[in-house]
Design a protein that fits this description.
about 80% helix, about 0% strand, single chain
Length: about 160
């Protein structure tokens, strides 16, 4: 059944969607994956953006509670949580300075360590409200999608 599903447009859409949800790789891998699988570009783009954006509001609203719960129940994760908080603080400098545009640029740069997950983490730790953070992150994801598209189609034509 899995082979049948992954060979269909729906299967390719779903796999592109889920790959785009994964932290670090996010849309930067999901979109090229969908295109490489033969998914029509508008569907690959839609799946990648939706997959990348789905976790964003949950991260913004719940990440502090999740970190507190993890610290309480799994003390061994404290070092990892501290690194994540330091990362959010470091990445948050531009967001503190430039607000909406800083968050948009942080998310838009298609490199590891940036993206919707990092943007949502930064927004959560800077107490940026959902109604202000989500539009900036969405605009950043769309910009990252445009950059990734250019790089993907450029690589396809070169090779």
């Amino acid at each position: 059944m899995i082979d049948w599903l992954t060979g269909t447009v729906l299967g390719k859409f779903i796999s592109t969607f889920f790959i785009s949800m994964v932290p670090v790789v996010e849309l930067r891998l999901g979109l090229p994956y969908g295109i490489a699988q033969g998914l029509p570009y508008p569907l690959a783009l839609t799946a990648a953006i939706l997959g990348n954006m789905l976790p964003t509001p949950f991260i913004i609203v719940y990440i502090r509670r999740v970190f507190a719960w993890l610290r309480l129940h799994w003390a061994a994760l404290d070092g990892f949580i501290r690194r994540m908080e330091r990362k959010a603080d470091t990445k948050g400098e531009a967001v503190r300075r430039y607000g909406f545009w800083g968050l948009l640029i942080l998310v838009a740069i298609p490199l590891p360590g940036t993206g919707a997950w990092t943007g949502a983490l930064v927004a959560a730790f800077l107490d940026i409200r959902l109604k202000k953070a989500v539009p900036a992150i969405f605009a950043g994801v769309c910009t990252a999608a445009a950059i990734t598209t250019v790089l993907t189609f450029g690589a396809i034509h070169i090779f």
